[in-house]
Write a structure and sequence with these properties.
Layout: E1 4-5, H1 25-35, E2 41-42, H2 45-51, H3 56-69, E3 72-80, E4 86-94, H4 101-108, H5 127-133, H6 135-138, H7 146-161, H8 166-174, H9 184-194, E5 207-211, E6 218-219, H10 247-270
Antiparallel strand pairs: 1-2, 3-4, 3-5, 5-6
């Protein structure tokens, strides 16, 4: 089954020339190529070898190193289908930013930590503020002042948080306007409040499992550091001396002991 690249884990982080500078040149080139592929693209070594100047063995090694570096994981995801059922599909997830094991564990639970963004050097207007500031250009009777835009922007932001796009907000604000409009800011506030769409239903957390990239064994994230299970990393299985022995083995061992003792007694008698 091909390894498919789904949506980037952290698509909000802008690309820079130094995203993969911490990797060796080959791994950096492979990572940069994967990072620019569309969602769902085939990233099997056979397909990658057709587009990159590396053989399949070299690409397997490169993918393993990307996995160890925290850029890539392979696993399974439980999805609902249109017919009403559900199924497990094979996934591979790629992150432009290297992630540690704790982050990938949170990702499998659908609890991805918020990205820490550097504070901007200059103040920028929000998406909501821009919409309000441009309102008077298309609908002059709703021209707003700088202070009005700043005061009303949080109300527009709440529409965005509930899934409404700019076109939906604009239609709610500009359709069926009274004539004349005496107080644009008051009318906009009233409509943003009275026509606020309902909150979307709570999103169910995704069901995801990680796999060992070498043998495909499914395991908890903490049991797959670097995306590989202990056996594939060369670790010996732990010994558990206190594990009870099955009764059938105890009976068989006792029968062997009795047989051996009876044989010794018989030999002693014959002597």
């Amino acid at each position: 089954m091909p390894w498919l690249k789904p949506t980037l884990v952290a698509p909000s982080c802008p690309r820079t020339a130094h995203d993969f500078a911490h990797l060796p040149p080959r791994e950096a080139a492979v990572a940069a190529y994967i990072d620019r592929l569309p969602d769902g693209a085939d990233i099997s070594v056979k397909t990658l070898a057709k587009h990159l100047p590396y053989g399949q063995c070299a690409l397997r090694t490169a993918l393993n190193r990307l996995q160890l570096a925290g850029h890539w994981r392979r696993g399974r995801e439980h999805l609902a289908v249109d017919s009403g059922g559900s199924r497990w599909i094979t996934r591979s997830w790629f992150s432009r930013t290297a992630r540690d094991g704790d982050w990938w564990a949170a990702f499998t639970r659908g609890d991805v930590p918020e990205e820490v963004q550097e504070p901007p050097t200059r103040r920028t207007r929000s998406r909501a503020h821009i919409l309000l500031a441009a309102l008077g250009r298309t609908t002059p009777v709703l021209s707003l002042s700088q202070a009005d835009c700043a005061a009303l922007a949080p109300l527009v932001a709440e529409w965005f948080e509930r899934g409404a796009g700019e076109d939906v907000v604009l239609h709610a604000l500009t359709s069926g306007l009274p004539t004349p409009v005496h107080h644009p800011a008051a009318l906009v506030r009233r409509r943003l409040t009275d026509k606020l769409p309902p909150e979307p239903p709570p999103r169910r957390p995704p069901l995801r499992l990680l796999e060992c990239a070498k043998c495909g064994a499914v395991g908890r994230p903490e049991a797959l550091p670097g995306g590989m299970c202990g056996a594939c990393r060369g670790e010996r299985a732990p010994v558990h001396p206190n594990v009870p022995v099955p009764a059938s083995k105890v009976h068989a061992y006792a029968a062997d002991m009795r047989s051996a003792m009876a044989e010794r007694r018989q030999k002693g008698t014959c002597a």
